[in-house]
Design brief:
The chain is α/β, with parallel strands linked by helices. It has a single domain, classed as HUPs (Rossmann fold), CATH 3.40.50.620. The protein has 6 helices and 7 strands. The radius of gyration is 17 Å and the shape is globular.
Length: about 240
């Protein structure tokens, strides 16, 4: 295909389904999506696979997820017939602790090393092995300050990222789950509004924001969704 600049449609005004369809039309088999099997992950998984049934679904498994998360992953994988692609760090959680200790307890630099090893490197490997040029992710503006000003389409490290549900409210997410007969993560009813590794996730308590429940409020992002630039790509 000859290189040509792509004129973005008004994706801010589009529906989540229209955003997914646009991404499918533009990127075809070079499009992937990610999931953490978190509190509302069923929404993105159902939404995207309703449009692109066989899309590769990348799941970064740190080895430190809640037991309920692993069971929830199996439930959704079977219910939605997901084309799941699981990626992990090159060394196990046990080996990491033997060699480096509990990195998440070693301040900013330790946490940064932990995220690079367990999340960023496996994701980079997934992108390379799957030949991906674009990535559908389930970020929402209401999840915290680092996401409040995001655009529906952005560029990050030469990867085009599309956020189909970026502007959905918590109420709209709940309505989608109930309307489509989907499940909440089993820890939702116990007060967990945002889920990651067990050692860096806490329940939502009085006076806390959703961002405060991750990494003790020190950071909302784990390295996979750092601030991006407006999309600037060609095909």
């Amino acid at each position: 295909m000859d290189e040509k600049s792509v004129q973005l449609p008004d994706l801010e005004a589009a529906t989540p389904q229209e955003r997914v369809q646009w991404a499918a039309d533009i990127f075809g088999d070079e499009l992937i999506m990610t999931t953490s099997f978190g509190t509302h992950s069923a929404v993105m998984l159902h939404l995207v696979t309703s449009v692109i049934p066989d899309i590769p679904v990348v799941f970064i498994d740190t080895g430190y997820l809640f037991p309920e998360t692993y069971r929830f992953a199996v439930e959704l994988m079977e219910k939605l017939n997901l084309n799941l692609k699981k990626y992990r760090a090159h060394i196990s959680a046990a080996e990491q602790e033997a060699l480096h200790g509990r990195l998440w307890e070693k301040g900013h630099e330790g946490l940064k090393q932990y995220n690079l090893m367990n999340k960023v490197e496996p994701m980079d490997r997934a992108v390379q092995e799957l030949g991906a040029k674009a990535w559908l992710a389930g970020l929402r503006r209401s999840q915290g300050e680092t996401r409040a000003s995001r655009k529906v389409v952005e560029s990050q490290n030469k990867m085009t990222k599309i956020y189909p549900i970026l502007d959905l409210s918590a109420r709209e997410m709940h309505e989608y789950i109930e309307t489509n007969g989907l499940s909440f993560h089993p820890l939702w009813d116990l007060g967990y509004v945002s889920l990651g590794d067990w050692h860096s996730t806490s329940k939502l308590e009085a006076g806390m924001s959703e961002s405060d429940t991750r990494f003790g409020g020190a950071s909302r992002e784990c390295g996979l969704h750092e601030p991006s630039s407006d999309v600037d790509f060609q095909i």
